[in-house]
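Re-run with default settings, no changes from the original entry. Doing this only to confirm the output is reproducible before filing.
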Amino acid sequence: MSGTLRLVPGAPPPPGSPGRTAPAARSRRRPSWADDPLDTLAEELAEVCAAAVHPDEIAAHLESEGLTGEQIQRRYGRRDTFEAAAELFARVPRAFPEPPPAPDPWRGDPGTALLRGLVFTLPGLGYALAAPFLTGPPDRLGLPAGTGALAASALAAWAWNQALAHRAYAALAAGGRAAAGRVLRTGAPAGVPIALAAALAAAAPLPAPGAALLFAAGQAVYLAAATVLLVLGRERLLLLALLPLALGAAALPLLPPEAVPAAVQAVVRAALPAVAVCAAVAAAARETVRAVREGTGAGGAAAAGAADGTLPARRASVPYGLFGLGCGVLTALAALGGTLWHGAGAAPAGPVVVALSLSMGAAEWLLYRCRSLALAALARSSTAAGLRWRAAGALGLCLAGYLAALAALVLATAALWPGGPPADPARLPAVLALGAVLWTGLLLQAFGAARTPAAVTAAAAAFCAAAPLWLHPGPPGPDTVLAAVCATAALVLLATAAALLGRITTHR
């Protein structure tokens, strides 16, 4: 009587009775109205899940966060980490985020560019102050007395210092300021006798007064000191050295002639350029010594030896000097071409030189801008053709910006030049074509392609310099010849620059 009884026919036996087995354990299904905790996890890891290309990436992230299999089962009701990762991968749509923008290594500083444009221009005030000392009959070419010696000295110093600056910048990149200081310590003084020898050689067929030769020597010394300060990034010191010259040149014309004796004016006119040269030399010597001392320690000596071993051969700097010489000749012809063609009656185009000097600040900033835009074009391009089009657009935009700035400066200096000649319609295109040659050549040099601009610029300078010999007398004037030759040279350099910027390897 202790056995169980079936009270209802066909009813299942009570629990625990013979013949009845316990039902299999079943997982409880979550009601449809209940929240899934995995949704919260999907929101928290939305960026990780969207950027994943495989569920295993999400599983690795979950494990890195310290979630174990037991925790996944208890918190989210999934068998293990991989099941949870697979569901997260399926729930969150793919959205690969763009990488954060990298810092722009070619971001230019407009203030520095403006400062460099000023220090390129202010030395021209020394010529205005020294003009009364450069007196005498015109030479055989019709140029004012001493112009040949001054031009030869400036061209030789310009070419030498362009090559020196290239080698010093290479040393700066390889071994820092100490290596650059050693290059400048020996190279800058070596260029002075070369420039002076060029002035003496030009004074033999084109006699020059003693004041012109003295001024040419001071010009060579100043250019050497300015190169040192510009390479070492001390533009402000150079501006301070030129400040007395600028103030004096601005104040003298404002004084009535009878207020200052002629002897005092002569002393002031001679002293101001001399003070500027001495101040620049003192600043350059001080900065050179400071730069060299940075590498006097044990570590600095080792770095110096390594830097000296990695410097390029000296012949690698020759194209940079040749480009500087060609640009100098073209600039001189833009200023003095009228005299060479028409004789002593033609007025020198001083505003052209001033405008070109002032524009160098804008040119330098736009060079940085062009490299920055070309790098951005590389980041946005997915095909080689797309890179070529975008790089060409950046090149055209920056060149157009420089030519617009140069045109504004040419018109402004011509309007403000006291007693200047009337505007020549052919002069502006000639100056703009010359500016295009200068800017595209500097751009190619910035990318290390120095041979093409050196060859093209030297050929253009030689052609323009020889033009008066075989085209005069004739209908084309100096500005027409300069515009045609420089436009042709600019097109060659522009095509070379566009091809260079369109290569992926250029932007490494």
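The CA atoms of residues 185 and 288 lie 7 Å apart. DSSP finds 18 helices and no strands in the chain.
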